[in-house]
């Protein structure tokens, strides 16, 4: 059987690619576990980093189970990968809320409010006897008299 497998070019090339991929993943993980990398990250990047490592390690265990002939879909690693995916979705939602949050243009809001406020015309001033000029900047208005609208 071994001679058949070694003679199969497709099989041997896949095994070599798999071995190179495993070695490459090992190097990436070695770089990812450096202490100073994590300490330099802000809270948002730390969450992404933790989720990345959790998903990566669980996926590697998934692959290990596959190489051992086990069905990883029936193993507890499946629920762990789903849990990490759920947290990844939640982290993206939090990030989106922070970046897409609407901002208030204060100057535009002030113009909008100012233009929307009722301003009495000349005839209303005479009928109501309100001193609008004195009350504008102070916020004090004569609430006893109500101007009549025509």
Q: What's the topology here?
A:
Blueprint: H1 2-7, H2 9-32, H3 35-39, H4 43-67, H5 76-100, H6 106-116, H7 122-128, H8 132-135
Helix pairs in contact: 4-5
Q: Mean pLDDT, nearest integer?
A: 79
| Series of secondary-structure elements, N-terminal to C-terminal | HHHHHHHH
Strand count, sense and closure of the main sheet?
none
Query: Beta-strand percentage?
Result: under 5%
Q: Tell the overall outline.
A: elongated
SSE-based structural type: mainly alpha
Report low-confidence residues grouped into runs of 5 or more. Answer: 132-137
Helix content, binned percent: over 70%
- The count of strands amounts to 0
Query: Could you tell me the radius of gyration in angstroms?
Result: 34 Å
Number of continuous helical runs: 8
Ends apart, CA distance between termini: 103 Å
InterPro entries: Exosome-assoc_fac/DNA_repair (IPR011082), Sas10/Utp3/C1D (IPR007146)
Function: Plays a role in the recruitment of the exosome to pre-rRNA to mediate the 3'-5' end processing of the 5.8S rRNA.
GO cellular component, one term: exosome (RNase complex)
Pfam families: Sas10_Utp3
Structure summary:
The protein is built from eight helices and no strands.
Fold and architecture overview:
- The structure is a single chain.
- The protein is mainly alpha-helical and 150 residues long.
- The protein has a domain at 34-100.
- 71% of the residues lie in helices and 0% in strands.
- It has 8 helices and no strands.
- Helix 4 packs antiparallel against helix 5 (76-100).
Q: Characteristics of this structure?
A:
150 residues; mainly alpha; 0% strand
